[in-house]
Specification:
Strand order of the largest sheet: 5-4-3-6-7-10-9
Mean pLDDT: 92
Number of helices: 10
Largest sheet: 7 strands, mixed
Oligomer: single chain
Order of helices and strands: EEHHEHEHEHEHEHEHEHHE
Helix content: 25-40%
Distance between the termini: 39 Å
Low-confidence stretches: none
Length: 293
């Protein structure tokens, strides 16, 4: 069986061959963190750090803008909090933050956001949710950034979150926008020669705007907003900047993403949020964030 194939599961897609628990543990411990893959790096440039902070700022602004919800004094749970960039910003604007992740001893909050380390819990996400259920702990905001694609049972995760979110609370889910309109276009027009977005074994579940919203609706959620990030896939339309065909072009595409978002935020944060919301409505962008209630 080709491990880089996916099959439909309800509205979304999953790997045809689901990796075993042992395989995943080995991958994350020996490869993912130690080789600086995924969202974790040994060091970042000033521009990259500003980009992380701007992403957190944009999330907070969109929440306030669309829901008229105050963040100050509210409880904020970041599941899969990684290096703590989002937690750090929400803490700075007055939220009562809690972060949950297993990566704290390697890369992450200890290195980049030590000032919020006391708000971190080093624990398996599902164990933490179970603890909250037993103790009837509920949050005003729950954030999952690039987490749900790693989960074998994403529907069960979303179902369980219902029991730890307050009645008027919001759940923010960010995921890679896979099998997106632009990816299908690129494949159809032979700008790419493979489904380059499939990442075995760490990305197990695959969503786009349509599939995620249909799943969320079936599970009883209401969608407040969909917004995007930078449309990095646009570089794949140009043979001279196609980083799938020529891997050496990937770093420059990444730098362009960082510089564009930082510049847009410097010019006008409010207009930038409108731009990302409009891209999200189109279902375009490498990552999508869906705010649910």
């Amino acid at each position: 069986m080709d491990i880089r194939k996916t099959k439909r599961k309800n509205e979304y897609r999953q790997l045809s061959r689901i990796p075993s628990k042992t395989e995943l543990e080995t991958y994350y411990k020996k490869i993912y963190f130690q080789q600086s893959k995924g969202s974790y790096e040994k060091k970042y440039s000033k521009e990259e750090i500003l980009y992380f902070k701007n992403n957190a700022k944009l999330l907070a602004l969109i929440i306030k803008k669309l829901t008229k919800t105050k963040i100050e004094g509210k409880t904020f749970l970041d599941l899969g909090a990684g290096e703590g960039w989002i937690m750090s910003y929400f803490h700075s604007i007055g939220a009562k933050v809690t972060g949950v992740d297993l990566s704290i001893l390697l890369y992450g909050v200890k290195k980049f956001n030590r000032h919020i380390i006391k708000y971190f819990v080093q624990e398996d996400m599902f164990n933490y949710i179970s603890m909250c259920q037993k103790k009837s702990i509920k949050y005003d905001f729950i954030n999952l950034r690039n987490v749900i694609e790693h989960v074998i049972h994403p529907e069960e995760l979303l179902k369980n979150l219902k029991s730890i979110i307050k009645k008027k609370g919001l759940i923010c889910v960010t995921f890679p926008n896979d099998y997106s309109p632009i990816q299908k276009f690129l494949y159809k027009t032979k700008k790419v020669n493979c489904e380059y977005w499939i990442s075995y074994p760490d990305h197990i579940s695959y969503f786009n705007k349509h599939s995620f919203l249909k799943m969320a609706d079936r599970l009883g959620y209401k969608t407040v907003c969909v917004f995007s990030d930078f449309l990095i896939d646009i570089f794949l339309m140009n043979d001279y900047s196609n980083y799938v065909i020529d891997k050496n072009k990937g770093k420059e595409a990444h730098n362009s993403r960082i510089n564009f978002i930082n510049l847009a935020c410097k010019i006008d944060l409010d207009i930038t949020t409108n731009l990302l919301i409009n891209l999200g409505e189109l279902g375009l962008g490498r990552n999508l964030t869906v705010i649910l209630k």
